[in-house]
């Protein structure tokens, strides 16, 4: 009897991402279904990430073309996967890794492999007649994530002088994802009004992830403005909504001198650690991502020892969704949370392995987008499938961001009474 899950075709093609840059789209067809997926792209990339293969032909897309990656799908990956059972995700991902033959997927391209990997999962779910979150997570998949909404952009995501890359709000006081989204959107609107009053119309231009990019310099100015916006909306900072930071400290680090530059001042890692403690004491900050550069496990550990009972210390560039790097962090106690980006590691099965490893070690796994995103909504399903409890996917603006929020609304609606919104319990010290 014919197996409906058998892969019949794999095809790569070009699409464009939210920055207008070329990216890879993959289509996988089985005998009984179809899956398509697009590869996102980061601006703040860790040096240990899977390699994003670009053509480097200056005559086309300023060297950012992806024809090589697409050719690799159509000429090398497709012939190896046709005839395989699409449900064998781990085997399929391992097959692509072996075919590539490099530690960071540099030959075929991490952007080619991740698009195919996600498309395989979608094709299998389609063949099974299941939603992706249910196919990946089974009957226990019912937790909607708390959104970490990046509503003030800085760093490489914006054209302002804010060195910290993201200032986020998390609506922990909601009873459902739908209510959480409403609360965050209302704060976003209030913030827009407030920024226009303070700085003028140009202050509400948005950055890569849909957050505003006002002419601020110091983190305290951004956090103070968030407090004001939350209160103006009628909510209470610290109980209804809390704040999260993505410092992206590797971008701020001067390796030659061993210092970090923030708002025109220099900090040793010990001074920066004290600075973070001061921010947490002064504002309702419950999460700090990448507080130190991507090789300083020890500084992460010191911050976790000092603040880990109060906030999430999140490794992104530190781990780059890599199981081996995460294991080292777990052994050292370097953090109590890991950011999970499928394209950082290159395959869905490796990303899911990182989530499982984190959960086994009582670490929080945060499913995340990239700054160069697409309309692909896979991460919304992955967040629910893994019951991660947290998602980062930008502001409630720009279609590539709102597509993920709208997908989560669909999932919550489908789950109906089974859906669960965890609220403040996803953060340390919030629930007794």
Verbal overview:
- The chain is an alpha/beta fold and 432 residues long.
- Helix content is 38%, strand content 17%.
- The protein contains 13 helices and 14 strands.
- It has helices at residues 67-81, 89-100, 110-128, 132-137, 177-199, 219-232, 269-282, 297-307, 323-332, 342-345, 348-360, 378-385, 399-415, and strands at residues 7-16, 22-30, 34-38, 146-153, 166-170, 242-246, 253-254, 259-262, 265-267, 285-289, 312-315, 337-340, 364-368, 390-392.
- An eight-stranded mixed barrel has the order 4-5-6-10-11-12-13-14, surrounded by six helices.
- Helix 2 (89-100) packs antiparallel against helix 3 and helix 7 packs parallel to helix 8 (297-307).
- The chain is globular, with a radius of gyration of 21 Å.
- The chain starts with 6 loop residues before the first strand and ends in a 17-residue tail after the last helix.
Topology:
Blueprint: E1 7-16, E2 22-30, E3 34-38, H1 67-81, H2 89-100, H3 110-128, H4 132-137, E4 146-153, E5 166-170, H5 177-199, H6 219-232, E6 242-246, E7 253-254, E8 259-262, E9 265-267, H7 269-282, E10 285-289, H8 297-307, E11 312-315, H9 323-332, E12 337-340, H10 342-345, H11 348-360, E13 364-368, H12 378-385, E14 390-392, H13 399-415
Parallel strand pairs: 4-14, 6-10, 10-11, 11-12, 12-13, 13-14
Antiparallel strand pairs: 1-2, 2-3, 4-5, 5-6, 7-8, 8-9
């Amino acid at each position: 009897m014919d197996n409906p899950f058998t892969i019949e075709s794999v095809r790569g093609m070009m699409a464009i991402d939210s920055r207008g840059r070329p990216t890879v789209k993959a289509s996988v067809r089985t005998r009984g279904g179809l899956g398509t997926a697009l590869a996102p792209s980061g601006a703040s990339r860790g040096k240990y990430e899977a390699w994003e293969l670009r053509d480097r032909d200056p005559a086309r897309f300023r060297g950012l073309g992806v024809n090589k990656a697409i050719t690799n799908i159509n000429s090398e990956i497709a012939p190896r996967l046709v005839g395989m059972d699409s449900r064998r995700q781990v085997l399929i991902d391992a097959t692509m890794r072996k075919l590539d033959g490099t530690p960071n997927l540099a030959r075929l391209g991490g952007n080619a492999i991740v698009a195919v990997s996600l498309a395989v999962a979608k094709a299998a779910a389609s063949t099974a007649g299941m939603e992706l979150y249910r196919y990946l997570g089974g009957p226990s998949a019912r937790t909607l994530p708390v959104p970490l909404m990046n509503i003030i952009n800085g760093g490489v995501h914006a054209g302002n002088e804010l060195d910290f890359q993201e200032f986020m709000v998390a609506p922990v006081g909601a009873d459902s994802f739908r209510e959480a989204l409403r609360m965050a959107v209302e704060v976003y609107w209030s913030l827009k009004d407030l920024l226009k009053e303070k700085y003028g119309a140009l202050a509400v231009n948005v950055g890569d992830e849909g957050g505003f990019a006002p002419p601020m310099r110091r983190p305290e100015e951004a956090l103070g403005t968030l407090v004001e916006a939350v209160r103006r909306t009628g909510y209470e900072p610290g109980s209804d909504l809390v704040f999260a930071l993505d410092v992206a400290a590797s971008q701020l680090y001067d390796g030659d001198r061993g210092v970090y530059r923030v708002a025109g001042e220099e900090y040793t890692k010990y001074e920066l650690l004290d600075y973070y403690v001061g921010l947490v004491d002064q504002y309702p900050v419950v999460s700090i991502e990448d507080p130190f550069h991507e090789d300083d496990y020890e500084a992460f550990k010191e911050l976790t020892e000092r603040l880990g009972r109060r906030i999430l210390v999140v490794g992104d560039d530190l781990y780059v969704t890599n199981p081996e790097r995460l294991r080292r962090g777990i052994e050292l106690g370097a953090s109590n949370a890991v950011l999970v980006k499928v394209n950082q590691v290159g395959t869905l099965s490796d990303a899911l392995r990182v989530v499982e490893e984190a959960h086994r070690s009582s670490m929080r796994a945060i499913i995340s987008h990239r700054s160069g995103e697409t309309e692909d909504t896979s991460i919304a399903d992955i967040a629910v499938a893994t019951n991660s409890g947290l998602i980062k996917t930008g502001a409630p603006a720009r279609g590539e961001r709102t597509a993920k929020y709208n997908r989560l609304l669909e999932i919550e609606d489908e789950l109906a009474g089974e859906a669960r919104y965890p609220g403040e319990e996803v953060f340390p010290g919030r629930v007794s």
